[in-house]
Sequence to fold (387 residues):
Amino acid sequence: MKLAARVGQVTPSITLAITAKAKAMKASGMDVCSFSAGEPDFPTPPHVVAAAQRAMDEGKTRYGPAAGEPALREAIAHKLQRDNGITYAPQQTIVTNGGKHALYGLMMALIEAGDEVIIPAPYWLSYPEMVILAGGQPVIVPTTEESGYKITPEQLRSVITPRTKLLVMNSPSNPTGKVYTPDEIRAIAQVAIETDLVVVSDEIYEKILYDGAEHLSIAAVEGMYERSLVCNGFAKAYSMTGWRVGYLAGPEAIISAVATIQGHCTSNVCTFAQYGAIAALNESQDCVAEMLAAFTQRRSVMLERIRSMPGITCPEPEGAFYLFPNISRLGLTSVEFCQRLLEEFQVATIPGLPFGSDANFRLSYATDLDTILRGMDRLDKFVSSLQ
Ligand code: GLU
Fold:
C-alpha cells in the first residue's frame, strides 16, 4: 500500500525513539543510565493526583468541550495574568494534548503550502517536522555558541520574505538551556512589529530558571499581544509528562480555529486529567520550587563533570534541564557518538543532529543524582577511549 507523501517528508521523533529504546534495555535487565527524554523523575505532586482522583470519583469521566473544561481555561487565563502579565479571556485559551499538540494545532490552523516558518537553530526537533506536516517550509536560522545560541534582530530581519508567516521562539530553550533576556525579547519583538510577523512562543520551561535568569513572554511586550501565541503545558513544571495536558493562548480567531481542528482530531483532553491541571495551577506552587532546587544541584554536578572531560566544551544552561555539550573535537558525528555511548556504555543521550547541530549532543539532567554520577563515570571512560 502506498503511503501519503508527507510520511516520507518527516522522520520519527528521535527523543521518543531513544527513550523507548533505553526503557526497553532497562526492562530486559540492563543497567542503563538514561539522560534521553526531558522527563522529570519526580512523581506528580500528590495534590494534583488527588484532584484527578476526586474528579474521577465525581464522574468527570465523560466527553467535555473540545477546547477544554471551562474551569481549566479560566485557571489558565488567570495564570497568564498572574505569572506573565498578559490578559486573556478564557475563550482565548485552548487546552491541548500536551504542548506538542498545541503547536501542531497552530501549524494546521495557520500554515499553508509554501508558507515560511522561521526556526532558530538549535531547535526542539519537532518544530520543523510539524511545519512540514502542515505543508510549510521551515527556514532554519543557525546561531552560535558565542551568541548564546540566540537569534539576533539583524539575523531575523535578514530571513524575512513575503512568504514568512511565523517565528517560533523557545526560551528557555530545549536543547541549549539558553534564556533570552527581557531586552533581547524586546528587540526581537521590535522586528516582529515592524515586519508584521506572527510569533509563537513555546514557554514550557518558563519555571525552570537558574542564577536569576528572567523569563519575559514576548506576548507581554507592547504591540505583540495581537501577533503572539503562547504555548505552555504541565509536563515539565509539575512533572506531569504522561498526563498530556498543555495549552495555547492568543487571539480569539486563531484559538477558535485551533479548537475547530481539535474537535475533529482529538476532541477534549482526558477530562479528569484536566482537573489535575486545575489543581496544579491554582494550588500551592511549592512543588515547582522543590523540583527546581533539585535541578539546580543536578545541573552543577553534571556540568562540572562534563567540563572536566577532555575534548568537550559545554555552555552553562540558564534554564530548562538540558546540557548541550560540544563534541566536535572528538572525531565522531553526534549520531555515532550517541550510538556508541549507548551500545558500549549503556548511557542514553540524544544526538544534536535532529536538533540542528551535529557538533553537539543533549543530556537531560531531570534524573536522580546517583544515575547522573554513574552515567558521568561511564561517559568519562568513553570520551577518554576516543583520545
Ligand atoms: N520534549 C521532551 C524532550 O525533548 C520530550 C520528548 C519529546 O516530546 O520530544 O525530550
User: Anything to note?
Assistant: The chain is about 45% helix and 15% strand. The pocket of glutamic acid is lined by residues 13, 15-16, 37-38, 100, 124, 126, 174 (CB under 6 Å). Residues 228 and 284 are 29 Å apart (CA to CA). The mean pLDDT is 97.
